[in-house]
TrEMBL record:
It is an enzyme of class 2 (transferase). It is found in: Endoplasmic reticulum membrane. This is Protein O-mannose kinase. GO terms for molecular function: ATP binding; carbohydrate kinase activity; protein kinase activity. Its main location: endoplasmic reticulum. Protein O-mannose kinase that specifically mediates phosphorylation at the 6-position of an O-mannose of the trisaccharide (N-acetylgalactosamine (GalNAc)-beta-1,3-N-acetylglucosamine (GlcNAc)-beta-1,4-mannose) to generate phosphorylated O-mannosyl trisaccharide (N-acetylgalactosamine-beta-1,3-N-acetylglucosamine-beta-1,4-(phosphate-6-)mannose). Phosphorylated O-mannosyl trisaccharide is a carbohydrate structure present in alpha-dystroglycan (DAG1), which is required for binding laminin G-like domain-containing extracellular proteins with high affinity. It comes from the Eukaryota. GO terms for cellular component: endoplasmic reticulum membrane. The chain crosses the membrane at residues 15-36. Keywords: ATP-binding, Endoplasmic reticulum, Kinase, Membrane, Nucleotide-binding, Signal-anchor, Transferase, Transmembrane, Transmembrane helix. One of its GO terms (biological process) is protein O-linked glycosylation. It is a single-pass type II membrane protein. InterPro entries: Kinase-like_dom_sf (IPR011009), POMK (IPR039318), Prot_kinase_dom (IPR000719), Ser-Thr/Tyr_kinase_cat_dom (IPR001245). It comes from Phoxinus phoxinus (Eurasian minnow).
Length: 347
């Protein structure tokens, strides 16, 4: 009898436990659904996370009021160098401090690169937007300009950063595909900018291309190095990225010397090209940004057709950056909807 009573009691106790587990599972699925919905709203609305100021104004760090760009007197008196954090042929970059805020101070390395430095500064001024690092101020006569500081560094550091414990939760296809969308969105802006059709010339290999972008703390991509953005004028002979012969598979076919190995390279004889060189490079940059996270293989499958179009040999046959962006956003939307539907089906 005692055994029978014990069995009945166990059955009564087991039923609430099962119901409790089902309720917990339901709550978990609801939370996941709301998370995905919020993630979708956040990632597809970049203006909600990038604060804008009026023309020639900025705000950085904890500053909440838009401030006019700093000029020579303010930079000389108020910007204090802390340490060197980057160096290239054109400029040196110092972590600096301004009114308690961390900023990046770029200093011309050599007078022989003055034209490149000033071109980069002019592009930085002209292209201020949600796609580009925030300009804080400039002093041309001293060969310096100041921008917002982003401690995560360039896009080259993406895998290293996402491997860290504090950022590992961001190592998902959502965030990685959003970075690819940011990259293509910048190309759209560049190819229809307020200062004409511009080409990314500092992009002769994957490493160089990624080094042109910074990772913001909210894991968004911002164009940073704008030293080589020549303008394509319709009806002209196009542009040329430098005066030396380019090689490799990363650059577009029209950027390679077209007259064979038996003919010595000549800058004068090298034909020009246009913004479609940027389109050719999109698949390789996307593959790096997506990495090997769960879901990346599905994304590549959905993007296969647009990858193929980007790699067409004839430049005029490649899609515009705007078309590529439309496809990327469509794939993002469908992936989110598919994941949300699976959650709804479990409710």
């Amino acid at each position: 009898m005692a055994g029978t009573v014990y069995g009945l009691t166990g059955a009564r106790c087991g039923l609430p436990a099962v119901l409790l587990c089902l309720a917990a599972l339901l709550c978990a699925n609801l939370l996941l659904y709301f998370y995905l919905d919020a993630l979708y709203q956040e990632d597809t609305n970049p203006l909600s996370i990038h604060t804008q100021c009026p023309l020639r104004h900025f705000k950085v760090g904890t500053i909440t009021v838009c401030t006019p760009w700093l000029r020579c007197p303010e930079i000389r008196a108020e910007v204090r160098r802390v340490k060197l954090i980057g160096q290239g042929a054109v400029k040196k970059v110092y972590l600096s401090e301004w009114r308690g805020q961390k900023v990046a101070l770029s200093v011309l390395s050599s007078e022989q690169y003055s034209d490149d430095f000033l071109h980069g500064l002019s592009m930085l001024r002209a292209l201020q937007s949600t796609h580009v690092v925030t300009l804080v101020g400039a002093c041309e006569e001293d060969g310096v300009f100041v921008t917002e500081y982003h401690p995560l560094g360039s896009a080259l550091m993406l895998d290293t950063i996402l491997a860290q414990d504090r950022y590992h939760w961001r190592n998902s296809w959502h965030n990685r595909l959003q970075l690819a969308i940011d990259y293509v969105a910048f190309l759209v802006y560049l190819h229809s900018s307020p200062v004409g059709i511009r080409v990314m010339c500092d992009s002769n290999d994957l490493h160089k291309t990624l080094s042109q972008f910074l990772l913001a703390s909210d894991m968004r991509l911002l164009a940073n190095d704008l030293d080589a953005l020549p303008e394509v004028e319709r009806g002209s002979q196009g542009v040329k990225c430098g005066h030396h012969e380019l090689n490799g598979d990363f650059v577009a076919p029209e950027q390679l010397w077209p007259y064979g190995e038996d003919v010595q390279f000549s800058d004068e004889a090298m034909p020009g090209y246009d913004e479609k060189t940027d389109i050719w490079k999109i698949p390789e940059v996307t593959r790096f940004l997506l990495g090997n996270v769960l879901g990346s293989d599905v994304i590549h499958f959905h993007l296969f057709q647009i990858y193929t179009e980007c790699k067409r040999t004839e430049p005029h046959m490649r899609p515009s950056a705007l078309k590529v962006l439309s496809v990327y956003r469509s794939v993002y939307d469908s992936m989110i909807e598919s994941q949300s539907q699976r959650v709804r089906d479990m409710l």
